[in-house]
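Record format v2
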Amino acid sequence: MNNRIISGISFLIFGILSLLSSRNILLLTFEDVIGIVFIFYSIPTVYSALNNGERGKLIVSTILFLVGVVFLVKSYFEILDTRGIVFFSVLFISGSVLIILFIENIKEKVFLYAGIFLLVLSYLSITQFKRLGLFNSANRIGSLLEVFWPVILIVMGMIIFVYRKK
Amino acid sequence: MDNSPVSPLPMKKFSRSKNNVVIMGVCAGIADYMKTEPANIRVIALLTILFGGWSIVAYLIAASLIPVDKNSAPLSQTEIISLRKENFKTVVSGLLILSGFYFAFKIIGISGGSRIFILPNDFIFPLAAFALGIYFIIIKQSKDEIILSGQPEKLSRSRTDRKLNGVCGGFAKYSGIDAAVLRIIFILAALLTLGIFALLYLALVVSIPYEEGQKFE
């Protein structure tokens, strides 16, 4: 199955689920729908990207898979304070991406060490960092990003637009 | 003195582009007529969706009325690939800017986009997803998409594409992701993790060597 078909089916699933949930036929939140679609898209894409050595696609689909899992977990366990899991999620997702890059090319040991470092830090972040008060500072930055995230989207779009010919 | 009448310049015909196509080549046709970059017209066209989405209808009408330019010379395979990459980046950047403005207006309270055409958004977005899904399934995968763009076997810091020490540039080359996007993600992650990513950057500077066989820019 090529990537276009996977993307196409993912869009169709998004369309069907969001239509059914908006008509209250299925009781799914937007986070549930996004989580299901991300996981559906990423599993076959990770598999094919690993086989073909497409690293960019591998990174993006691993991130999407883990973001999908975070969305579903957040919705299922009714975690209301999203900012409380951002710190852990960023570290865990980046660590996992580096580990999967190591699996793709086991000669690059730097990915393994950096990945383990980030995964250990992500574990410490939910056990030790609360005591040190690091969460409060991270949450303050998180609140700023929560307000200004459309600006980040616009800036990202403009940077890609400027460097489109590179 | 030459008194022969000056022949008028041949009038430029307005037509859809045959080579530079994202959907139907209308934007590239307009850009060619106005002698500007097609990317500018594409981003502006995407931004007009903010005003109720009627530009989509206008686009479809234009596509059905304007003929395709049959005189343009066919492009080589490399030109097609680079044009496709550029168009992909243009569409992604346009969509990011569009969604950024959409959500910014929504947060500020200038929500003119609660409805697109006469349908509410919770109905139009699933329909758009259906359309995109069917589009992705029915179009054929061209051969050049399957060819991989020679990613390097070894991770190294870039000497040419660098802002500090070339880690993001080298990683961009290794993974095939745009270096600018990687840099923004890295900065955001560094902010969200209180500088842990800055420490990681320093560790990567120490552990990853510079690429061989190239001098500094």
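The two ends of chain A are 30 Å apart (CA to CA).
The CA atoms of residues 47 and 58 of chain A lie 8 Å apart.
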